[in-house]
Design goal:
With 398 residues, the chain is of the alpha/beta class. It contains 19 helices and seven strands. It has three domains: 91 residues, no CATH class; 125 residues, Rossmann fold; 120 residues, no CATH class.
Length: 398
Protein backbone atom coordinates (compact mmCIF):
# COMPACT_ATOMS: atom_id res chain seq x y z
CA UNK A 1 0.00 0.00 0.00
CA UNK A 2 2.88 2.34 0.88
CA UNK A 3 4.55 1.59 -2.47
CA UNK A 4 1.28 2.42 -4.25
CA UNK A 5 0.93 5.74 -2.39
CA UNK A 6 4.57 6.67 -3.09
CA UNK A 7 4.04 5.93 -6.79
CA UNK A 8 1.00 8.21 -6.88
CA UNK A 9 2.93 11.03 -5.20
CA UNK A 10 5.84 10.59 -7.60
CA UNK A 11 3.43 10.68 -10.54
CA UNK A 12 1.72 13.85 -9.31
CA UNK A 13 5.08 15.58 -8.79
CA UNK A 14 5.78 15.17 -12.50
CA UNK A 15 3.03 17.67 -13.24
CA UNK A 16 4.65 20.29 -11.01
CA UNK A 17 6.98 21.14 -13.90
CA UNK A 18 3.94 23.21 -15.03
CA UNK A 19 3.38 21.37 -18.33
CA UNK A 20 -0.21 20.42 -19.08
CA UNK A 21 -0.22 17.20 -21.17
CA UNK A 22 -3.26 18.38 -23.15
CA UNK A 23 -2.01 21.85 -24.10
CA UNK A 24 -0.35 20.44 -27.24
CA UNK A 25 -3.71 20.17 -28.97
CA UNK A 26 -4.00 23.67 -30.36
CA UNK A 27 -5.80 23.05 -33.68
CA UNK A 28 -3.14 24.51 -35.96
CA UNK A 29 -1.31 23.37 -39.04
CA UNK A 30 1.99 24.76 -37.73
CA UNK A 31 2.38 22.83 -34.47
CA UNK A 32 2.78 19.10 -35.02
CA UNK A 33 0.42 16.65 -33.34
CA UNK A 34 1.93 13.21 -32.76
CA UNK A 35 -1.11 11.14 -31.71
CA UNK A 36 -2.76 8.76 -34.16
CA UNK A 37 -6.49 8.77 -34.86
CA UNK A 38 -8.66 7.16 -32.19
CA UNK A 39 -10.00 3.64 -32.85
CA UNK A 40 -13.44 4.66 -34.15
CA UNK A 41 -11.80 6.80 -36.85
CA UNK A 42 -9.31 4.26 -38.22
CA UNK A 43 -11.80 3.05 -40.84
CA UNK A 44 -12.24 6.67 -41.94
CA UNK A 45 -8.48 7.03 -42.27
CA UNK A 46 -8.23 3.85 -44.36
CA UNK A 47 -11.06 5.06 -46.63
CA UNK A 48 -9.55 8.47 -47.27
CA UNK A 49 -6.09 6.97 -47.89
CA UNK A 50 -7.54 4.55 -50.45
CA UNK A 51 -9.45 7.36 -52.16
CA UNK A 52 -6.30 9.50 -52.43
CA UNK A 53 -4.32 6.66 -54.00
CA UNK A 54 -7.02 5.76 -56.54
CA UNK A 55 -7.97 9.26 -57.80
CA UNK A 56 -6.23 12.14 -59.57
CA UNK A 57 -6.56 15.96 -59.50
CA UNK A 58 -9.64 15.91 -57.28
CA UNK A 59 -11.11 18.32 -54.73
CA UNK A 60 -12.29 16.23 -51.77
CA UNK A 61 -14.52 17.88 -49.14
CA UNK A 62 -14.15 16.72 -45.53
CA UNK A 63 -17.17 17.76 -43.45
CA UNK A 64 -17.10 17.98 -39.65
CA UNK A 65 -18.41 20.24 -36.92
CA UNK A 66 -16.19 22.89 -35.33
CA UNK A 67 -13.79 21.18 -32.92
CA UNK A 68 -14.25 17.69 -34.37
CA UNK A 69 -10.57 17.42 -35.32
CA UNK A 70 -10.23 18.42 -38.99
CA UNK A 71 -6.78 19.93 -38.39
CA UNK A 72 -5.70 16.80 -36.50
CA UNK A 73 -6.75 14.87 -39.62
CA UNK A 74 -4.05 16.77 -41.52
CA UNK A 75 -1.35 15.58 -39.11
CA UNK A 76 -2.69 12.02 -39.12
CA UNK A 77 -2.66 11.94 -42.94
CA UNK A 78 0.81 13.44 -43.04
CA UNK A 79 2.09 10.70 -40.76
CA UNK A 80 0.32 7.86 -42.57
CA UNK A 81 1.15 8.94 -46.15
CA UNK A 82 4.63 10.41 -45.69
CA UNK A 83 6.24 7.76 -47.93
CA UNK A 84 3.93 8.63 -50.86
CA UNK A 85 3.01 12.32 -50.66
CA UNK A 86 4.20 15.79 -49.75
CA UNK A 87 1.22 17.12 -47.76
CA UNK A 88 0.89 20.88 -47.33
CA UNK A 89 -1.43 22.65 -44.88
CA UNK A 90 -2.86 26.04 -45.79
CA UNK A 91 -5.68 28.09 -44.29
CA UNK A 92 -7.64 30.59 -46.35
CA UNK A 93 -7.55 32.85 -43.30
CA UNK A 94 -3.80 33.29 -43.75
CA UNK A 95 -2.97 32.69 -47.39
CA UNK A 96 -5.42 34.66 -49.53
CA UNK A 97 -2.81 37.42 -50.04
CA UNK A 98 0.18 36.40 -52.20
CA UNK A 99 -1.53 33.05 -52.68
CA UNK A 100 1.00 31.31 -54.94
CA UNK A 101 4.05 32.69 -53.12
CA UNK A 102 2.72 31.59 -49.71
CA UNK A 103 1.74 28.20 -51.11
CA UNK A 104 5.19 27.84 -52.68
CA UNK A 105 6.85 28.69 -49.35
CA UNK A 106 4.88 25.95 -47.59
CA UNK A 107 5.69 23.46 -50.34
CA UNK A 108 9.42 24.21 -50.27
CA UNK A 109 9.53 23.77 -46.51
CA UNK A 110 7.96 20.34 -46.96
CA UNK A 111 10.06 19.35 -50.00
CA UNK A 112 13.47 20.28 -48.55
CA UNK A 113 16.64 21.48 -50.26
CA UNK A 114 18.02 17.99 -50.98
CA UNK A 115 14.98 17.11 -53.06
CA UNK A 116 15.14 20.47 -54.87
CA UNK A 117 18.74 19.70 -55.88
CA UNK A 118 17.73 16.27 -57.15
CA UNK A 119 14.93 17.78 -59.26
CA UNK A 120 17.13 20.47 -60.86
CA UNK A 121 19.83 17.88 -61.56
CA UNK A 122 17.31 15.52 -63.19
CA UNK A 123 15.93 18.31 -65.36
CA UNK A 124 19.36 19.51 -66.52
CA UNK A 125 20.35 15.94 -67.38
CA UNK A 126 17.15 15.58 -69.42
CA UNK A 127 17.92 18.83 -71.26
CA UNK A 128 21.44 17.55 -72.06
CA UNK A 129 23.09 20.33 -70.11
CA UNK A 130 26.33 18.39 -69.72
CA UNK A 131 28.39 17.13 -72.62
CA UNK A 132 31.42 14.89 -72.28
CA UNK A 133 34.58 16.22 -73.87
CA UNK A 134 36.83 13.47 -75.23
CA UNK A 135 34.22 11.05 -73.88
CA UNK A 136 35.27 11.64 -70.26
CA UNK A 137 35.09 15.25 -69.01
CA UNK A 138 31.60 16.76 -68.41
CA UNK A 139 31.36 20.28 -69.85
CA UNK A 140 28.26 22.46 -69.23
CA UNK A 141 26.37 23.52 -72.33
CA UNK A 142 24.05 26.17 -70.88
CA UNK A 143 22.61 27.50 -74.13
CA UNK A 144 21.72 24.04 -75.39
CA UNK A 145 20.02 23.23 -72.08
CA UNK A 146 17.99 26.47 -72.22
CA UNK A 147 16.91 25.78 -75.80
CA UNK A 148 15.82 22.22 -75.02
CA UNK A 149 13.97 23.31 -71.87
CA UNK A 150 12.06 26.07 -73.64
CA UNK A 151 11.13 23.77 -76.53
CA UNK A 152 9.74 21.22 -74.06
CA UNK A 153 7.72 23.64 -71.91
CA UNK A 154 6.69 26.56 -74.17
CA UNK A 155 3.17 25.17 -74.73
CA UNK A 156 2.56 24.29 -71.04
CA UNK A 157 2.84 27.77 -69.50
CA UNK A 158 0.94 31.01 -70.08
CA UNK A 159 3.73 33.43 -69.20
CA UNK A 160 6.85 33.27 -71.46
CA UNK A 161 8.78 35.71 -69.25
CA UNK A 162 8.10 33.66 -66.09
CA UNK A 163 9.09 30.48 -67.95
CA UNK A 164 12.37 32.04 -69.07
CA UNK A 165 13.11 33.12 -65.49
CA UNK A 166 12.45 29.67 -64.05
CA UNK A 167 14.52 27.88 -66.74
CA UNK A 168 17.44 30.28 -66.15
CA UNK A 169 17.33 29.67 -62.39
CA UNK A 170 17.17 25.86 -62.68
CA UNK A 171 20.05 25.75 -65.18
CA UNK A 172 22.16 28.22 -63.17
CA UNK A 173 21.60 26.10 -60.08
CA UNK A 174 23.13 23.03 -61.69
CA UNK A 175 25.45 24.23 -64.47
CA UNK A 176 26.87 27.61 -63.43
CA UNK A 177 29.08 27.43 -60.30
CA UNK A 178 29.28 31.25 -60.10
CA UNK A 179 25.50 31.62 -59.84
CA UNK A 180 24.66 28.45 -57.87
CA UNK A 181 24.26 30.09 -54.47
CA UNK A 182 22.01 32.88 -55.76
CA UNK A 183 19.98 30.36 -57.75
CA UNK A 184 19.49 28.23 -54.65
CA UNK A 185 18.30 31.28 -52.69
CA UNK A 186 15.81 31.95 -55.48
CA UNK A 187 14.55 28.35 -55.36
CA UNK A 188 14.10 28.65 -51.59
CA UNK A 189 11.80 31.63 -52.11
CA UNK A 190 14.21 34.28 -50.84
CA UNK A 191 13.31 37.87 -51.78
CA UNK A 192 15.90 39.27 -54.19
CA UNK A 193 17.10 42.75 -55.11
CA UNK A 194 17.73 44.08 -58.63
CA UNK A 195 21.44 43.21 -58.58
CA UNK A 196 20.76 39.59 -57.57
CA UNK A 197 18.05 39.23 -60.22
CA UNK A 198 20.39 40.68 -62.84
CA UNK A 199 23.12 38.19 -61.85
CA UNK A 200 20.70 35.33 -62.56
CA UNK A 201 19.43 36.99 -65.76
CA UNK A 202 15.82 36.98 -64.53
CA UNK A 203 13.15 39.70 -64.36
CA UNK A 204 11.25 38.77 -61.19
CA UNK A 205 11.61 36.76 -58.00
CA UNK A 206 8.85 34.52 -56.66
CA UNK A 207 6.78 37.40 -55.33
CA UNK A 208 5.54 37.60 -58.91
CA UNK A 209 2.51 35.29 -59.09
CA UNK A 210 3.38 33.96 -62.55
CA UNK A 211 6.90 33.05 -61.44
CA UNK A 212 5.64 31.46 -58.21
CA UNK A 213 3.03 29.40 -60.05
CA UNK A 214 5.47 28.30 -62.77
CA UNK A 215 8.10 27.17 -60.27
CA UNK A 216 5.46 25.46 -58.14
CA UNK A 217 4.16 23.53 -61.17
CA UNK A 218 7.68 22.50 -62.23
CA UNK A 219 8.68 21.21 -58.79
CA UNK A 220 5.39 19.42 -58.04
CA UNK A 221 5.29 17.67 -61.42
CA UNK A 222 8.93 16.57 -61.15
CA UNK A 223 8.90 15.57 -57.49
CA UNK A 224 9.42 11.91 -56.63
CA UNK A 225 6.33 12.02 -54.36
CA UNK A 226 2.82 13.15 -55.16
CA UNK A 227 1.48 16.33 -53.56
CA UNK A 228 -1.66 16.99 -51.50
CA UNK A 229 -2.82 20.48 -50.52
CA UNK A 230 -4.95 20.42 -47.37
CA UNK A 231 -7.03 23.64 -47.44
CA UNK A 232 -8.53 24.31 -44.01
CA UNK A 233 -11.25 26.86 -43.22
CA UNK A 234 -12.69 26.65 -46.74
CA UNK A 235 -15.92 28.06 -45.30
CA UNK A 236 -14.10 31.40 -45.32
CA UNK A 237 -14.79 31.57 -49.05
CA UNK A 238 -18.54 31.51 -48.41
CA UNK A 239 -18.44 34.50 -46.04
CA UNK A 240 -16.32 36.44 -48.54
CA UNK A 241 -18.73 35.73 -51.39
CA UNK A 242 -21.94 36.60 -49.54
CA UNK A 243 -23.49 39.77 -50.78
CA UNK A 244 -24.46 42.47 -48.33
CA UNK A 245 -28.07 42.32 -47.26
CA UNK A 246 -30.28 44.56 -49.32
CA UNK A 247 -31.49 47.55 -47.40
CA UNK A 248 -34.68 49.18 -48.59
CA UNK A 249 -34.05 52.83 -49.30
CA UNK A 250 -35.81 55.64 -51.13
CA UNK A 251 -32.71 56.27 -53.20
CA UNK A 252 -30.03 53.78 -54.26
CA UNK A 253 -26.86 55.35 -55.66
CA UNK A 254 -26.32 52.32 -57.91
CA UNK A 255 -29.25 53.55 -60.03
CA UNK A 256 -27.04 56.41 -61.16
CA UNK A 257 -23.48 55.13 -60.74
CA UNK A 258 -23.85 51.38 -61.21
CA UNK A 259 -23.14 48.68 -58.66
CA UNK A 260 -19.63 47.94 -57.45
CA UNK A 261 -18.34 44.61 -56.17
CA UNK A 262 -17.18 44.59 -52.56
CA UNK A 263 -13.47 44.07 -51.89
CA UNK A 264 -14.26 40.78 -50.12
CA UNK A 265 -16.11 39.54 -53.17
CA UNK A 266 -13.13 40.38 -55.38
CA UNK A 267 -10.76 38.58 -52.98
CA UNK A 268 -12.98 35.48 -53.05
CA UNK A 269 -13.07 35.41 -56.85
CA UNK A 270 -9.28 35.80 -56.99
CA UNK A 271 -8.91 32.83 -54.65
CA UNK A 272 -11.23 30.76 -56.85
CA UNK A 273 -9.25 31.69 -59.95
CA UNK A 274 -6.01 30.60 -58.29
CA UNK A 275 -7.48 27.31 -57.04
CA UNK A 276 -8.80 26.69 -60.57
CA UNK A 277 -5.30 27.32 -61.92
CA UNK A 278 -3.95 24.64 -59.57
CA UNK A 279 -6.03 22.15 -61.58
CA UNK A 280 -3.45 22.52 -64.36
CA UNK A 281 -0.72 21.00 -62.16
CA UNK A 282 -0.34 17.26 -62.60
CA UNK A 283 0.00 14.98 -59.55
CA UNK A 284 -1.67 17.59 -57.33
CA UNK A 285 -4.63 16.59 -55.15
CA UNK A 286 -6.71 18.90 -52.96
CA UNK A 287 -8.62 18.33 -49.71
CA UNK A 288 -10.90 21.07 -48.35
CA UNK A 289 -12.53 21.17 -44.90
CA UNK A 290 -16.06 22.43 -44.28
CA UNK A 291 -18.17 22.71 -41.13
CA UNK A 292 -21.48 21.39 -42.48
CA UNK A 293 -23.53 20.02 -45.38
CA UNK A 294 -25.00 23.50 -45.78
CA UNK A 295 -21.50 24.84 -46.39
CA UNK A 296 -20.99 22.21 -49.09
CA UNK A 297 -24.22 23.27 -50.81
CA UNK A 298 -23.01 26.89 -50.75
CA UNK A 299 -19.62 25.89 -52.17
CA UNK A 300 -21.26 23.95 -55.01
CA UNK A 301 -23.39 26.99 -55.78
CA UNK A 302 -20.30 29.24 -55.87
CA UNK A 303 -18.41 26.80 -58.10
CA UNK A 304 -21.41 26.55 -60.44
CA UNK A 305 -21.58 30.33 -60.79
CA UNK A 306 -17.87 31.07 -61.00
CA UNK A 307 -16.04 28.02 -62.36
CA UNK A 308 -17.68 24.83 -63.63
CA UNK A 309 -14.32 23.08 -63.90
CA UNK A 310 -13.96 23.24 -60.12
CA UNK A 311 -17.45 21.80 -59.70
CA UNK A 312 -16.58 18.93 -62.07
CA UNK A 313 -13.56 18.01 -59.92
CA UNK A 314 -15.46 18.25 -56.62
CA UNK A 315 -15.99 14.75 -55.21
CA UNK A 316 -18.60 13.38 -52.84
CA UNK A 317 -17.81 14.45 -49.25
CA UNK A 318 -16.46 12.36 -46.41
CA UNK A 319 -17.75 12.98 -42.89
CA UNK A 320 -15.56 13.26 -39.80
CA UNK A 321 -17.61 12.32 -36.74
CA UNK A 322 -17.29 13.05 -33.01
CA UNK A 323 -15.57 10.68 -30.58
CA UNK A 324 -17.37 7.56 -29.40
CA UNK A 325 -17.27 6.94 -25.64
CA UNK A 326 -14.52 4.30 -25.84
CA UNK A 327 -12.31 6.78 -27.71
CA UNK A 328 -11.83 9.12 -24.76
CA UNK A 329 -10.15 6.40 -22.68
CA UNK A 330 -7.64 5.50 -25.38
CA UNK A 331 -7.06 9.16 -26.24
CA UNK A 332 -6.42 10.02 -22.57
CA UNK A 333 -3.99 7.14 -22.05
CA UNK A 334 -2.08 7.83 -25.28
CA UNK A 335 -1.71 11.52 -24.40
CA UNK A 336 -0.41 10.78 -20.88
CA UNK A 337 1.98 8.19 -22.31
CA UNK A 338 3.37 10.72 -24.82
CA UNK A 339 3.76 13.27 -22.04
CA UNK A 340 5.72 10.83 -19.85
CA UNK A 341 7.94 9.84 -22.77
CA UNK A 342 8.70 13.52 -23.42
CA UNK A 343 10.04 13.96 -19.86
CA UNK A 344 11.79 10.56 -19.80
CA UNK A 345 9.42 9.04 -17.21
CA UNK A 346 7.79 6.34 -19.29
CA UNK A 347 8.00 3.61 -16.62
CA UNK A 348 6.06 5.61 -14.03
CA UNK A 349 2.67 4.78 -15.51
CA UNK A 350 3.33 1.02 -15.44
CA UNK A 351 3.47 1.07 -11.63
CA UNK A 352 0.04 2.68 -11.20
CA UNK A 353 -2.94 0.45 -10.41
CA UNK A 354 -5.35 2.96 -11.95
CA UNK A 355 -4.25 3.41 -15.59
CA UNK A 356 -6.27 6.67 -15.78
CA UNK A 357 -4.61 8.28 -12.75
CA UNK A 358 -4.93 11.11 -11.69
CA UNK A 359 -8.36 10.90 -13.40
CA UNK A 360 -10.56 7.82 -13.18
CA UNK A 361 -12.92 6.08 -15.58
CA UNK A 362 -16.03 7.67 -14.10
CA UNK A 363 -14.58 11.19 -14.40
CA UNK A 364 -13.61 10.61 -18.04
CA UNK A 365 -17.08 9.29 -18.78
CA UNK A 366 -18.65 12.44 -17.32
CA UNK A 367 -16.30 14.62 -19.39
CA UNK A 368 -17.28 12.71 -22.54
CA UNK A 369 -21.02 13.17 -21.99
CA UNK A 370 -20.75 16.81 -20.97
CA UNK A 371 -18.78 17.47 -24.17
CA UNK A 372 -21.24 15.43 -26.27
CA UNK A 373 -18.26 13.65 -27.82
CA UNK A 374 -16.75 16.81 -29.37
CA UNK A 375 -12.94 16.38 -29.23
CA UNK A 376 -12.18 20.08 -28.78
CA UNK A 377 -14.57 20.36 -25.82
CA UNK A 378 -13.15 17.16 -24.31
CA UNK A 379 -9.63 18.59 -24.54
CA UNK A 380 -10.70 21.92 -23.01
CA UNK A 381 -12.23 20.12 -20.02
CA UNK A 382 -9.14 17.93 -19.58
CA UNK A 383 -6.91 21.01 -19.73
CA UNK A 384 -9.04 22.61 -17.01
CA UNK A 385 -8.87 19.49 -14.79
CA UNK A 386 -5.09 19.23 -15.14
CA UNK A 387 -4.61 22.93 -14.45
CA UNK A 388 -6.40 22.32 -11.14
CA UNK A 389 -3.97 19.48 -10.43
CA UNK A 390 -0.89 21.46 -11.48
CA UNK A 391 -1.67 24.75 -9.79
CA UNK A 392 -4.11 23.90 -6.96
CA UNK A 393 -3.11 20.35 -5.88
CA UNK A 394 -6.52 18.93 -6.78
CA UNK A 395 -6.70 15.24 -7.69
CA UNK A 396 -9.44 12.69 -8.19
CA UNK A 397 -9.70 9.92 -5.61
CA UNK A 398 -9.93 6.35 -6.91
Amino acid sequence: MLLWENTKLKFLKLFKIKINPFNNFVATGEIKEELDFVNSRKHFMDSISKFIDENQNFILPIIGDIGVGKTHLFWALKKKLKEKYNIIYISLENIYRKFFYNLYSEFIEELGIDNIRKITQKLCNKWRGLEKKYGFFPIPNIEKAKSNAYSEWKDEFDSPSALNDIINVIISHQLDPYKRIDAEDYLLGELMNIRELSMLDVENDLRNRNNAFTMLKVLIENSKLGTIIFIDDFDKLISLMKEEEEIETFFDSSWLYGSEESSDNIVAKNILDKIAKLQHIKNLKKIITLNSKISLIEIKKIFRQENLDLLNHLKEPMFLSDFQEDDIYGFYQSTIQKFLESIDSKKTLANLKNSYYPMNENTLKKIYHRSKGNPRDIIKKLIREFNEIIYHDKFIND
